[in-house]
Recover the amino acids of this structure.
């Protein structure tokens, strides 16, 4: 009743009601704030607008006051509701930020752990790679040494060795081959074998290389090279890949010209010896057969034996 006396209420007493509207909007939202605004307007009308303690104003002068009260109260309700929404959004944003920071911290810890694991794995991989590289270098050194030894052995062979592909191209030769044809390895590799061997512009279908490529089997023959006036003993062997296809042939050519000349000289020598022996032997056998014939006088026998002895003496000489 004391608060309801208009003589003791200041002109700005509606602010006290606004203090009820604003917290309602801040803590409970727009609906409760509007409700508080309406209730405050009713209370203001009941307690402070004449006639007092009644609902509804009898004076037209108090209606603007009540309208202004409702307008201001509604405005405060919306402002308080917006403030509450912004506050809630700020709280949510803070919560989201805290949650994000927690997730980031957790992810950072997980990332650090992952980095440690990956570092250990990389260190292990690095050790394995270093070990593998070391073993590979050793293997390469062994292969290089083996290749060098093989090349030295290949070049030390006195026979003429060459390797040809299916298209008659020379792939590899040894030093003896290069020396025999008066060309370097670089000059020979890539040339057609028939150009080097036979001095022709096209392949010879009966050559050992063609036979080996065609049959996939080894081949052997003696060949006389008129351009070099030399005899060669040629052996060929196939090079077969993993698919069972003959891709190359290995040629081993041995110069047997001197051997052929030796054989000829031996034949000539044997023929000469045979001729030289044939005349004395003919005399000896003829004289002996005649001496053993019936009716030959003793003097003739002596002469025939003398002839046989002279023939034997000539053989001894």
């Amino acid at each position: 009743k004391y608060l309801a006396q208009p003589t003791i209420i200041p002109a700005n007493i509606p602010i006290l009601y606004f203090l009820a509207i604003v917290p309602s909007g801040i803590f409970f939202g727009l609906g409760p704030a509007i409700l508080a605004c309406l209730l405050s307007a009713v209370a203001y009308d009941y307690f402070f607008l004449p006639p007092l303690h009644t609902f509804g104003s009898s004076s037209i002068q108090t209606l603007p006051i009540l309208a202004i009260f409702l307008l201001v109260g509604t405005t405060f309700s919306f402002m308080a509701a917006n403030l509450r929404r912004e506050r809630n959004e700020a709280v949510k944003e803070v919560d989201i930020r805290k949650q994000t920071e927690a997730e980031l911290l957790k992810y950072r810890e997980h990332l650090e752990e992952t980095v440690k694991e990956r570092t250990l794995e990389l260190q292990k991989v690095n050790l394995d790679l270093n070990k593998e590289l070391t073993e590979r270098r050793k293997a390469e050194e062994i292969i290089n040494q083996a290749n060098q030894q093989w090349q030295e052995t290949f070049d030390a062979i006195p026979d003429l060795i060459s390797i040809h592909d299916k298209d008659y191209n020379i792939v590899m030769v040894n030093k003896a081959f290069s020396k025999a044809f008066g060309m370097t390895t670089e000059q020979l590799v890539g040339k057609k074998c028939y150009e080097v061997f036979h001095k022709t512009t096209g392949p010879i279908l009966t050559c050992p290389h063609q036979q080996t490529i065609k049959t996939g089997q080894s081949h052997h023959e003696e060949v006389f090279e008129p351009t070099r006036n030399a005899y060669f003993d040629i052996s060929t062997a196939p090079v077969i890949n993993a698919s069972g296809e003959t891709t190359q042939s290995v040629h081993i050519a041995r110069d047997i010209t001197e051997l052929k000349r030796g054989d000829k000289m031996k034949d000539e020598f044997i023929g000469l010896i045979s001729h030289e022996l044939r005349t004395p032997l003919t005399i000896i056998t003829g004289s002996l057969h005649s001496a053993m014939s019936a009716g030959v006088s003793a003097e003739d026998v002596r002469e025939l034996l003398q002839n046989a002895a002279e023939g034997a003496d000539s053989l001894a000489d």
The chain has nine helices and five strands. The first strand starts at residue 160 and ends at 165. Strands lie at 160-165, 170-173, 219-225, 230-240, 246-255.
